[in-house]
Specification:
2 domains, LpxD (chains A, B, C), homotrimer, ten-stranded parallel sheet, twelve-stranded mixed sheet, alpha/beta, UDP N-Acetylglucosamine Acyltransferase, domain 1, 30% strand, 343 residues, 16% helix
Chain lengths: 343, 343, 343
């Protein structure tokens, strides 16, 4: 796909400042810009790249005033950031999308498939599964018995959904996601453990995106529940009976232990751990690698393991780095006090 | 499946207190109880839910004395907790189990398959593999050449077992588990690394459960060894030549580096890390997110990174939170001592 | 495969000290040696095992002088460590390698496959994919549209490579690896998040090994880039637009957030976390479980979360363990100073 600068400007309601006929066929980052690509400048910190970039076209805010000479063609728009997001979405929308049913694939007779499906080769759809309209099921995906998948959801290659789980509309499940494996429940019995059967399921509401190789366990009873709009990154662990509130965002490799309830609009960094049976208030933000071991009120901002108030943690950690110095000071004082006492 | 309260009571040797004819068709948690479901009250902390739950039937200990009015039918049993575990197991046992060989699947001519197998579509069983009786191999599973799987083991969808590995009887491997990938062994050679071939295998003994997307690497030589009754949660990493002792339980996202030997009956929290070449005594308990960098005697209870004695860690961490205050105190004392000296 | 001690000695340019006709058919670790196996002694720390091992043959340095009696046959070589590495490689090279195209597999008409391929059953190769010579693609692997794979690369079972990604020559991708899932990019829009399309790809250069279930996300624009010779362990997370420099080694469960650039020849322990948009200098070493939150100069050696100079961290942590004692000392001093002042 090739575009002239003037066509892109027209598309975005922008103005060309340079050669309107120059052609681009891809986008690039301004610091890595190559001829034939379009880059953008949204953050003033990157302005110096405008004067050296090899990109043929650069989107800039209409207020941009160059301080030096530059070689590229500019397109001036209201907001360069919004414009590039629009272009990315257009580019994405124009990419060919798979459709149809590839063979061999395995669809149980009692499964129901909506309109305009894509079912990739070696996909498996179990008994009584209900697949909505316009769902894309990539190759080697496993949809267990009785699973429901809502309209417009994309399930990438190799996702495994155990029986009885429910996935909403317009969700994206990335490769290797596992929904509905047994919760980690064992009762001690003498010197060994006896498995507690896990007969619940996982319910994922609409507009949820789940990253590659993330695992969400089924509930012991009832449902492990991921509310609408939640975004989970790769390699996240969600244990049985956890509830994640709407529009909460959780970065990679974070783990949430059983039955913990996370409120809406929380943001967790990577590699965070939460123990089980907690309640985390809405709007809580947790720094990467923190550990949460108690209930948390709304809108908390936390760091540490165990985590506490973020700015306080920062102060404590500054002091942690001074500990050898503090210890020396303490020993000195001890001597001086002994001296004073002896006088 | 529907049951009357009186039938459940008969099954459990309990007594109905309320309507013996009320019908339930599922179980629920007492705090989320819905009409037509059975809940249970084992922990006195949840007693107040009895008076408000929508569940039709609640299992209680026979000694339970209600303090308020309630709407549900009670079934009084010796132990509500044991009774619900019994019911869950019965429910689990009654769920239909897959059986037979679905097509297309790939079974090498030289593989041997025991009685009553389930082999899901798109499963692959390599040359010389030996599969015991009553084994369930879900779709898209890869069983490499020469792998042995014991009787009654369940291998969920998409598990990958490299050649030569051994899995015992009555094991459960959840979706996405990888057994027998190469250990992470490289020898420096000039400015780059040369791979050290990994020619050992993984041996998993009987009654082991392995969580979704957990990885256990093959040994460089010999075997990476998971003893009987071990329970591994999701996304755990077990490196080459590690030994995990019998009935040890390891929570999600924990990692154990090469050649470390973990004793029996240990319990590790989530996101714990152990460096290589250590010996961890039997019965050791390690708190979540801890890091282990030295050999550990039996029955230790540890926290921190590096970890040390749990109660001592708790005290140190309390002090860590007081560090800014301590620093202020120290500075004040310094001034006062300087004052005293100048007098 | 069976070998006589004299044949192995000839192969390695070594000298037999004992029975030249003794036969071995496998290798073992000296501490676990069994009759019929060959073990080695490279580290003097393990010397005592020579006198008790059941291994039939032990490779030793030619300078080895036994202090006690021993039962095994010795083969004396220049370097026992190099010799065992040579033997492991020979053993590995002699193992039968899969080849040919198993059915059913799915190869798009527009894909091109090089010479001597192995394509396992249920593998999927998308439109326009280009597979080099002597590539091994194990069962249930997904190679998306337009993916390029270089000569001599091994892709184990169940790897998923999204469209447009590039894998170099002589790479090894272990089971469950996901390359090219969408970067974790969302723009807030009112009370929820809007997905930022991720139109870049992943480029993996030559001689890279990637561990089981590791995830490398595609770039928002441009490429997430893994340079030649990089070794990634299992369950590692590499976010969008990250660059990992040549011959860098990263242990299991480490995560690198978006756009961070890691230099050449770095070594990261397990469970390390790096926040986004950082630059990590070449030759940096980071201890396990550390957290990196700022740019790092070349050849740094770091520990902690946030991490700082390793030896300094060690000192601070020693003091952390003394905090309750320090606090007591401080309180005592405070009293004594108050006493002194009152006099």
């Amino acid at each position: 796909m090739e575009f002239k600068a003037k066509d892109i400007a027209a598309l975005l309601g922008g103005v060309v400042d340079g050669d309107p006929e120059v052609i681009v066929n891809n986008v690039s980052k301004i610091e890595e810009g190559k001829p034939g690509t379009l880059a953008f400048l949204a953050n003033p910190k990157y302005e110096h790249y405008v004067y050296t970039t090899q990109a043929s076209v650069v989107l800039v805010n209409k207020t941009f005033e160059p301080a030096h000479e530059y070689a590229c063609t500019l397109i001036r728009v209201e907001s360069a950031y919004d414009a590039i997001a629009t272009l990315l979405q257009m580019y994405e929308d124009m990419r060919p999308k798979p459709q149809g049913i590839e063979q061999p694939s395995y669809v149980s007779e009692s499964a129901t498939i909506g309109e305009k499906p894509y079912i990739g080769a070696f996909a498996y759809i179990g008994k009584g599964a209900k697949i909505g309209n316009n769902v894309k099921i990539y190759p080697q995906t496993y949809i267990g018995d009785g699973v429901t998948v809502g309209d417009d959801t994309i399930i990438y290659a190799g996702v495994k959904i155990y029986s009885g789980c429910v996935v909403g509309k317009s969700c994206i499940l990335h490769a290797g996601v596992v929904l509905g494996a047994d919760g980690f429940g064992f009762a001690p019995e003498g010197d060994h453990y006896k498995k507690v059967p896990q007969i619940g399921n996982v319910v994922v509401e609409d507009n949820v995106e789940i990253g590659a190789n993330t695992c969400i366990d089924r509930a012991t009873m009832g449902s492990t529940l991921i509310h609408k709009g939640v975004k989970l990154d790769n390699l996240v662990q969600i244990a049985h009976n956890v509830v994640v509130g709407g529009n909460t965002v959780i970065a990679a490799q974070t783990g949430i232990a059983g039955t913990t309830k996370v409120g809406e609009n929380c943001v967790f960094g990577g590699q965070v751990g939460l123990v089980g049976h907690l309640t985390i208030g809405a709007g809580t933000q947790i720094a990467a690698q923190s550990g949460i071991t108690s209930n948390i009120p709304e809108k908390s901002v936390l760091r540490g393991s165990p985590a506490f108030d973020y700015p306080k943690y920062q102060k404590c950690y500054v002091m942690f780095r001074k500990l050898p110095e503090m210890y020396g000071l303490l020993r000195d004082l001890e001597k001086e006090v002994a001296n004073l006492k002896s006088k």
